[in-house]
């Protein structure tokens, strides 16, 4: 949670280096704030060294007349004049609070808690200054550097610049490091050193960048004697913070006050301005009732948004006194449309993007190459979802365009093999074979690969044929496969429900191929298709599947056995034959739309090992860039690629967006895969797998059925009387709410779970940044509610969200 | 140009701060290189202060045994121990070279020239160290900071870290500032200070980030006497660079050698690896003959790529001695598919992206808002291409998706107004009215808004009707409008060519509406449409135009009068009526596809003031993000927006990509518009406008016909016997080459201009980074060659490219 209060202005003071005058300028600000009649809180969370100890007393010793309105506090203090991480390690803990070296989490919570305490005092107007230790990147107690460790609190910044030789460089670099973490830098302050005159350079430099720089007279040399030092220092403070309330420090104060009030005004204006200027995707504006329906996202960190809650708050926004932070933590329960992998604003990804943007900007891709794209292509083909079958990577901008590329590839390959058998008109009548409930993206071509439905537009023309698939779900504590009536009819029992006993067995496609159900599926598919081939509208030219889970169609868990048998039938492979990888496609080109399910979303690098068969074409996007920026990749076998080769330019795949394979996204993708692959073999994942009874052997990692969500919770949810089905896989938890109507237009899930959106302060210490109460932002698909984690969501967050879901649904159930 | 030589390894030494031991460690590296038998070049381009003067002699004084193999040089020297920009300003120039304070351009060229001189010495293996002054962001002579001023040379970096208190912070921040400019940081070296032990922290910190850190024993305290200093320092060097050739410095040397050879191996492997793994957009792989057809882009800066030329070079790559840089400058003559606005890798855009990524990452957009998107939406509507008519911004990922959104909007608005008159089947038969030669993007829906052609795929279904438009061109020094025969027939003279006298008159649509040609256009359009309405395949539901220039269709300059009359006819407005802005659409919704032509590509913020009528929907992309990352915006009038409002979710515009309005791109777009709008009112643009006889009055800035290209060149080109037409507008120069066949499959333009691709060292000092010879990368559309600038291309670059084009074509003409 970031902290923003109406009557308490908080600034965090960072230094461009150690010993640049951070404490002196902070003390001056404290004095000036007090002189202007504010209550002032001075917080130095960590202090090291006897010298800084003394500095720390600047405020208290010299605040004189304002002693009653200035409140000073240090949370962790060390005598050793070294970096805090070293001080903590060397001296052992000897601080004010009796805790051992705190983790980043505890540290941020301790600071946030103190700030909230101050905000809850009925003293206003009030100013607070939080002084950091050393430079922006000096390590804190845990070893994390200052700006990363304070980032969860997202306080606006005063950067104290360096006025000495070399100080221009360290000031600018420090500013850039703050920027890379998204910090709001309200002001840069530095001493007016008349010899090096850094401020002369920095004022216009930062003016061009919209940042205010204030130079303040430098302090005198430090005299040897303590008494003399006291006298000289006090005189200096009197000069820069004069009783006239004029001068540079008061100018700085005025500017910081203005920044604070401008920020309050701006954020308060955002809901209405957004209602006036923005057309949201997938939103019926007619149902948006007003400002409180607008989620104003001020920043984000990890799994949490920081949102402006003034319009949501029960207290009127005009209240004279508002002790709660105007910003509230909100768990990003849909992983921002299924994109998040390593949490919002991960510094490693920001740096990766910056590195590639700084080296290349964008460079056009036709017949060109650059390292980020080349490395990504090779990696995806050799060690990623293309492993063992793909030979080429084709980049585009999003899942929808990636699927259009896939369709163009498949149609061409099919048409080429048909040769003269297809005339121009017949080519236009090519269609796809798919499953009911499929969704492949929003562009019209991708939509045409699906049935007509609520999502489709005037031009929609469903090109193909879609089978109704059997689905998997947890229902009343049992794992059940629901067979559509048409399939049930070909089974011996005609039952529409098949109980499989366990998830792990349900997903063991290899074993299940030997069961009678596989034969029933085959029989049903063969019959249905031969009927279609006789009189269907389209010549089927590609099989298009979302493996395991159909996302936008309603989080439908398809029986993987059915998808496998379907592929085998299309390829003319007998049931239970060993899947020989072939470089040629047979029957129809098979496209896997892994945009949602791929790259560990379901706990697995790819869904391919699960089904035990390779596609001819696959599409990945969303997680590919770790949840930061758009990029899609269409992988293909060499046989598909060869269909476009000739000596004629018009035979090429004439598709390409301006920013195809732009370096920033490719570099971010490489970095994301580095991070995720490391996590995937780490202990947190092993533990989660173990809780689902899933082995940690290499093979199980490729095919195991497990989730970050608790197995017992899923079981318990599936038994609730408001719930028809519950399922979990990887990061995904799906709960289907009882509703007569059902479907996309249902509001049942939304209505039942609505209370989750409120920030609740129920836990002792919340899992949200700074330990703040948090609400849950989630999306529903009609009667289906789903919750999605990042690949690195903390156990505390997961347990806490589970608890909220359980209590909300359980209460809803009892009440019903 | 960045510099990379086979037998000369060059490293640039940056400091994390001033006084961190840069000169000492560089000297140690110089000594070690020499000790290992290399010729060594030590270049300190700028030196300030008597102390550094002495430091500078470290190399010479202490290189002893290797005096003949170590070559030391300083280009600019000042006595004043302050930042170079101050030294230069204070002392006046008193340097080694007799030039006044050099511009960044001259400075980079001086350094590059010296490096090239060293590389051309037949001495190998050789090492070179280029030592910078102060910290990474210390200003150079011109005031630009070190890492920005050296960036055009893109040399790999040794960063000397700071071993003192606070040094962890300055080292990390400096590294991040280097990263933001894309620098390759091969190594971080710092002193092993036993008290602060920064290296202990930095080694694992950077290991995690893949950067090598080497700690070296710290030098002794500097003794007072010069003799003693000499003795002590020499002893220190003997210790860290011992005759045994062992120890930390030699380990550093080995690592740098390895980085260099790894880079050579890697870049040399890139062509074949790319041929093996990448499927390029719009490329017929069957025509790619081998490694030399792969453009390996090592980095980019401003208007230039830096490309690997080993496979292109006339000299065999195996030559023992290769004095030329393996990297070559290449002018990006198509502005990387029409995206570039402010040059590649512009630091301001990199920082903007980093700032937003650091604050938000991506946050999902439905019913949410964040500052970068909100500000961009408001700005585009109020002060951008939506000024005066648009009420909403809908974001998507690229021009093609932006156009699909526009089509969905128009189709819905039209269908809604038709109401019961349209049944479900008729809705599918809705079509667009457009112009032959249109192109609206690569997705299938956008393609369906165009005629069938080489770009279309199996599923293509041309939905609509396309008129053949009259076009504008310079031909044999005259401005001519070419009328299609069908239009010529309705004129009095039946001539297919109309000479208009001047470009400015041709584009003065307001005046030309009063001419007979306007009436002829109206008559032709009305007749043709009424005939289509009687028996056409589709119910026309939208008018879709690329205003002024149809890009991918062949850079066709459409007569703007024709587009204006067409809009008036569709809207039922009489010819020459004053265009009353209406908030309601009439006739058909009008879509302007400004993806290519918008946002100053043609010198104008928007094409709308030119035509004098507002669209109902417009799409912008490409330049929107300054050429860095994908983003598109569809702007609409309120009337169109209202067509989607109801209390039913399924009536909403159910379109949205995962990364809709991702903060990094929105922030970059805002920053791009800041930069461009500043340039647009600057003197360079005024000068260019003046050269085309275009007034600088505010109105003329909105509607003036001018180009960055020279008017006389365009005239002269149009008279060449190999050229049929030449045109220029804004950043665009189009040359149509004579060819019997013509069209997209023609290779005439490519064949005639092919020589441009070679790097030529013809000018005294080239306009490319570091003054390097440069080739020109350009793309053709069949018989059409085009060249495109950024909005800030330097006059030197433009003149130089013009000269190359002229000479190539003029020679081709004489020869033919």
UniProtKB/TrEMBL annotation, chains A, B:
Question: Which keywords has UniProt assigned to this entry?
Answer: Aminotransferase, Transferase
What GO annotations for molecular function exist for this entry? adenosylmethionine-8-amino-7-oxononanoate transaminase activity; ATP binding; dethiobiotin synthase activity; magnesium ion binding; pyridoxal phosphate binding
Q: What is its main location?
A: mitochondrion
Tagged with keyword Ubl conjugation: no
* Ion transport keyword on record: no
Identify the domain of life.
Eukaryota
Cellular component terms (Gene Ontology): mitochondrion
Subcellular localization, per the record?
Mitochondrion
One Pfam family of this chain: AAA_26
Q: What's a GO biological-process term for it?
A: biotin biosynthetic process
HAMAP family in the record: BioD
What's the protein name? Answer: Onanonoxo-7-onima-8-eninoihtemlysoneda
Starting at the broadest rank, the lineage of the source organism is: Eukaryota, Fungi, Dikarya, Basidiomycota, Agaricomycotina
């Amino acid at each position: 949670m970031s902290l923003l209060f109406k009557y308490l202005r908080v600034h965090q003071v960072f230094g461009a280096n150690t010993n640049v005058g951070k404490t002196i300028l902070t003390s001056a600000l404290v004095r000036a704030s007090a002189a202007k009649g504010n209550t002032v809180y001075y917080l130095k969370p960590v202090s090291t060294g006897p010298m800084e100890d003394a500095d720390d007393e600047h405020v208290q010793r010299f605040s004189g007349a304002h002693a009653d309105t200035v409140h000073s506090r240090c949370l962790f203090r060390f005598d050793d004049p070294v970096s805090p991480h070293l001080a903590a390690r060397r001296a052992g803990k000897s601080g004010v609070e009796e805790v051992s070296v705190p983790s980043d989490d505890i540290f941020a919570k301790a600071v946030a808690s103190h700030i909230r305490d101050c905000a809850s005092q009925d003293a206003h107007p009030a100013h607070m200054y939080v002084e950091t230790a050393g430079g922006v990147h000096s390590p804190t107690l845990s070893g994390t550097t200052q700006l990363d460790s304070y980032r969860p609190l997202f306080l606006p910044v005063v950067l104290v610049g360096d006025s000495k030789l070399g100080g221009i460089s360290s000031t600018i670099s420090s500013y850039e490091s703050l920027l890379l973490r998204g910090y709001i830098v309200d002001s840069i302050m530095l001493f007016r050193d008349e010899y090096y005159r850094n401020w002369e350079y920095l004022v216009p430099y930062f003016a061009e960048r919209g940042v205010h720089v204030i130079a303040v007279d430098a302090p005198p040399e430090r005299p040897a004697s303590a008494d003399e030092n006291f006298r000289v220092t006090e005189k200096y403070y009197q000069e820069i913070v004069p009783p006239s309330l004029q001068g540079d420090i008061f100018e700085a104060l005025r500017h910081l006050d203005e920044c604070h009030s401008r920020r309050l005004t701006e954020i308060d204006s955002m809901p209405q301005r957004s209602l006036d200027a923005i057309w949201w995707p997938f939103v019926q504006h007619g149902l948006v009732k007003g400002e409180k329906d607008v989620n104003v996202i001020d920043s984000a960190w990890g799994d949490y948004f920081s949102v402006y809650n003034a319009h949501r708050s029960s207290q009127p926004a005009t209240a004279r006194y508002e002790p709660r932070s105007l910003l509230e933590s909100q768990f990003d329960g849909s992983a921002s449309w299924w994109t998040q992998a390593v949490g919002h604003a991960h510094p490693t990804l920001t740096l990766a993007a910056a590195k590639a943007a700084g080296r290349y900007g964008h460079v056009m891709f036709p017949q060109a190459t650059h390292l980020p794209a080349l490395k990504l292509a090779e990696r995806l083909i050799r060690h990623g979802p293309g492993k063992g079958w793909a030979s080429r990577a084709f980049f585009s901008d999003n899942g929808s365009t990636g699927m259009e590329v896939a369709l163009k590839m498949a149609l061409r390959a099919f048409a080429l093999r048909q040769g003269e058998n297809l005339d121009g008109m017949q080519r236009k009548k090519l269609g796809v074979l798919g499953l009911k409930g499929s969704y492949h993206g929003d562009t019209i071509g991708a939509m045409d690969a699906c049935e007509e439905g609520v999502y489709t537009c005037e031009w929609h023309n469903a090109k193909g044929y879609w089978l109704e698939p059997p689905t998997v779900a947890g229902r009343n504590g049992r794992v059940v496969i629901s067979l559509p009536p048409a399939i049930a009819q070909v089974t011996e029992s005609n039952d529409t429900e098949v109980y499989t006993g366990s998830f792990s067995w349900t997903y063991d496609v290899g074993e299940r191929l030997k069961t009678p159900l596989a034969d029933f599926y085959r029989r049903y598919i063969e019959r249905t298709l031969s009927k279609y081939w006789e009189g269907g509208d389209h010549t089927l030219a590609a099989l298009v599947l979302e493996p395991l889970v159909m996302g936008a169609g309603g989080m439908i868990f398809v029986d993987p056995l059915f998808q496998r048998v379907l592929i085998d039938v299309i390829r003319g492979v007998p049931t239970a034959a060993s899947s020989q990888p072939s470089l040629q496609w047979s029957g129809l080109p098979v496209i896997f739309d892994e945009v949602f399910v791929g790259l560990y979303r379901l706990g697995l690098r790819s869904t391919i090992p699960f089904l035990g068969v390779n596609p001819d074409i696959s599409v990945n996007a969303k997680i590919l860039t770790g949840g930061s920026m758009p990029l899609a990749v269409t992988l293909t076998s060499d046989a598909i690629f060869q269909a476009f080769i000739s000596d004629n330019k018009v035979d090429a795949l004439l598709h390409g967006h301006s920013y195809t394979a732009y370096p920033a996204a490719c570099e971010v993708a490489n970095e994301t895969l580095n991070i995720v692959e490391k996590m995937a073999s780490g202990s947190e994942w092993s533990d989660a797998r173990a809780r689902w009874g899933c082995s940690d052997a290499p093979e199980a990692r490729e095919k195991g059925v497990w989730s970050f969500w608790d197995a017992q919770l899923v079981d318990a949810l599936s038994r609730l009387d408001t719930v028809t089905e519950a399922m979990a896989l990887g990061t995904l938890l799906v709960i289907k709410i009882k509703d007569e109507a059902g479907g996309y237009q249902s509001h049942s899930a939304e209505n039942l779970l609505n209370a989750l959106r409120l920030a609740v302060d129920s836990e002792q210490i919340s899992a949200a940044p700074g330990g703040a109460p948090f609400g849950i932002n989630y999306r529903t698909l009609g009667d289906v509610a789903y919750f999605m984690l990042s690949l690195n969501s903390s156990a505390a967050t997961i347990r806490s969200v589970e608890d909220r879901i359980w209590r909300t649904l359980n209460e809803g159930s009892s009440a019903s």
